């Protein structure tokens, strides 16, 4: 009787121990199956892991195709000027150049005298025609009119030398109808001729005219002979012609 009673108890004890071990392993045996539990909340993110080791260098690839040329960029700002460098060595002497054109200074000069036929009494207001040309290379003096016409602008010097005989003499140096200078020499019935000389500087521009003119009717004692002359001379002292290579 006693053994029959202890057998069921031993069986129950074995089952209880088996179920206890399964619960510890979070496993429910088929004999103790329950309803599925509610899903748990998501867990927190874990801390970052350690950096991995550098990988091996890759193999060199083949060069790619050349790309199209880009647009030209805008010029940059000018940099600060650098310091002046040391003076360089003297260079070699260059070849001699070809000869240049020769600069020719403007010229103008004349000189003329009275012929014996012109010593007859002259009229007041008339230009004295020194008709015997001594020098007139540029042709600026006209012996037919006794007048010099300016071609080259500048300063000129004019001089008159007169032999005075038979009467006193007074004449004027005229520029464009205006008196520039006057000269006078009295003659006192001497047996030999007297002389009268004078000169002055005049500034002229092209087209200006200069001549000698009788001043008074009773003083016309110009004289000329094979032994003595009366002359009219003029020449350019310096030019202000800006087209001249010499005087520009």
TrEMBL record:
Family annotation (InterPro entries): C1q_dom, Collagen, Collagen/C1q_domain, Tumour_necrosis_fac-like_dom
Intracellular or extracellular location(s): Secreted, Extracellular space, Extracellular matrix
Main location: secreted
A Pfam family hit: Collagen
Domain C1q, first and last residues per copy: 103-243
Annotated Basic and acidic residues bias: 53-74, 84-98
PROSITE patterns tied to this protein: C1Q
UniProt keyword annotations, A-Z: Collagen, Extracellular matrix, Secreted, Signal
Domain of life: Eukaryota
Chain residue ranges for the region called Disordered: 34-103
Listed GO CC annotations: collagen trimer
Signal peptide extent: 1-19
Identification of the protein by name: Complement C1q tumor necrosis factor-related protein 5
Provenance organism: Anabarilius grahami
Lineage: Eukaryota, Metazoa, Chordata, Craniata, Vertebrata
């Amino acid at each position: 009787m006693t053994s029959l009673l202890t057998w069921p108890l031993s069986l129950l004890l074995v089952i209880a121990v088996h179920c206890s071990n399964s619960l510890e392993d979070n496993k429910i045996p088929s004999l103790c199956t329950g309803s599925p539990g509610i899903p748990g909340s998501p867990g927190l993110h874990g801390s970052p892991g350690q950096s991995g080791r550098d990988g091996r260098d890759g193999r060199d690839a083949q060069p790619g195709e050349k790309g199209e040329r880009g647009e030209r960029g805008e010029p940059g700002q000018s940099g600060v000027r650098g310091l002046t460098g040391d003076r360089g060595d003297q260079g070699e002497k260059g070849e001699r150049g070809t000869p240049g054109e020769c600069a020719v200074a403007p010229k103008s000069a004349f000189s003329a005298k009275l012929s014996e036929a012109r010593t007859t009494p002259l009229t007041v207001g008339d230009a004295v025609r020194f008709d015997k040309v001594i020098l007139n290379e540029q042709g600026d003096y006209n012996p037919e009119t006794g007048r010099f016409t300016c071609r080259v602008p500048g300063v000129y010097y004019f001089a008159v030398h007169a032999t005075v005989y038979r009467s006193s003499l007074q004449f004027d140096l005229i520029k464009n109808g205006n008196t520039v200078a006057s000269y006078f020499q009295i003659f006192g019935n001497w047996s030999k001729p007297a002389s009268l000389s004078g000169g002055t500087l005049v500034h002229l521009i092209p087209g200006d005219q200069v001549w000698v003119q009788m001043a008074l009717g009773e003083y016309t004692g110009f004289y000329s002979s094979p032994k003595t002359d009366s002359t009219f001379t003029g020449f350019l002292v310096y030019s202000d012609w800006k087209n001249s290579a010499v005087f520009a």
